[in-house]
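wait is this the right file?? whatever heres the structure
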């Protein structure tokens, strides 16, 4: 052979400089989907600010009323309509009640409505949309026509009809939100399931004989979790604003209970004389809605694989 006597020698090789050894190394470490989403979320300052504010206002609503020396219902006309001071940080209302304490207590009611509506939105919307999208055909057609019909009925009509049956108050608002707020989630989940149900992993599960509900809950829904979390986050401020609006027009909780909408409604009578009584409840509603919206926008970007760099 022509190359039989060919030998390798040290002179044939050139040592690679140290700075060139890492050229072909992987720059970004291996990460799971959720680790990558959290890393990108942390880079979004508005989203992180919204997250911290949501945690802060939730903790304040839970423990705040216990730390205040006042309660939300006691009246003292000798200190009525006093402006913000050291004794009363946000001032007092026409009945001498501490506005700061009433805002803390109102946060409980408003956030409870928002969180309960979101939980109902999550459970009902996922099951309804998942079943509709998975089975398709006539089942999908009938279920979506029901959704369209419920969409056509105004929320205010729901509340009025429920008030006639079970009376006014927090239960009426929560029940009305339970009827109407899952509709958007159902449509989003249905669209996701329709796009995923022809994938290979779903066909493999069917071939192995997996039950329909197992395929929906264990395979399709987890792969749709990104849009679901974003929709869930954005539904909370919508529910809070709906509760505030209904309480503002007199269809919410009854006195002496205080939600942010009730506080704003009571402050309307003295808006021009004591504007601070409207300012603080409106500020609480605005900041909370902004925080949830910033968080929702950040989650949408963080959970979108197309945004990955």
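ok assuming it is, sequence goes like this
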């Amino acid at each position: 052979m022509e190359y039989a006597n060919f030998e390798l020698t040290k002179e044939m090789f050139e040592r690679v400089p140290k700075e060139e050894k890492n050229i072909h190394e992987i720059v970004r470490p291996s990460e799971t989907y959720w680790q990558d989403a959290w890393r990108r979320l942390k880079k979004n300052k508005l989203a992180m600010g919204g997250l911290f504010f949501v945690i802060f206002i939730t903790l304040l609503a839970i423990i705040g009323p216990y730390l205040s020396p006042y309660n939300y219902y006691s009246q003292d006309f000798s200190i009525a309509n006093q402006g913000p001071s050291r004794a009363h940080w946000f001032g007092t209302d026409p009945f001498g009640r501490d506005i700061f304490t009433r805002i803390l207590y109102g946060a409980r009611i408003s956030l409870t409505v928002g969180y309960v509506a979101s939980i109902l939105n999550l459970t009902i919307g996922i099951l309804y949309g998942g079943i509709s999208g998975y089975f398709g055909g006539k089942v999908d057609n009938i279920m979506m026509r029901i959704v369209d019909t419920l969409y056509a009925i105004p929320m205010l009509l729901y509340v009025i009809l429920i008030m006639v049956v079970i009376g006014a108050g927090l239960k009426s608002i929560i029940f009305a939100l339970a009827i109407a707020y899952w509709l958007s989630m159902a449509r989003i989940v249905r669209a996701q399931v329709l796009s995923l149900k022809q994938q290979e992993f779903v066909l493999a599960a069917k071939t192995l004989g997996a039950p329909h509900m197992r395929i929906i809950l264990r395979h399709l829904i987890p792969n749709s979790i990104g849009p679901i979390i974003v929709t869930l986050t954005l539904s909370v401020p919508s529910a809070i604003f709906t509760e505030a609006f209904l309480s503002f027009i007199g269809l919410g909780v009854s006195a002496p209970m205080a939600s942010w909408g009730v506080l704003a409604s009571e402050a309307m009578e003295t808006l021009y004389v004591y504007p601070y009584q409207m300012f603080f409840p409106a500020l609480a509603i605005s900041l909370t809605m902004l925080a949830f919206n910033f968080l929702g926008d950040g989650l949408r970007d963080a959970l979108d694989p197309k945004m990955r760099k």
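The mean pLDDT is 80. so i think its the right one actually
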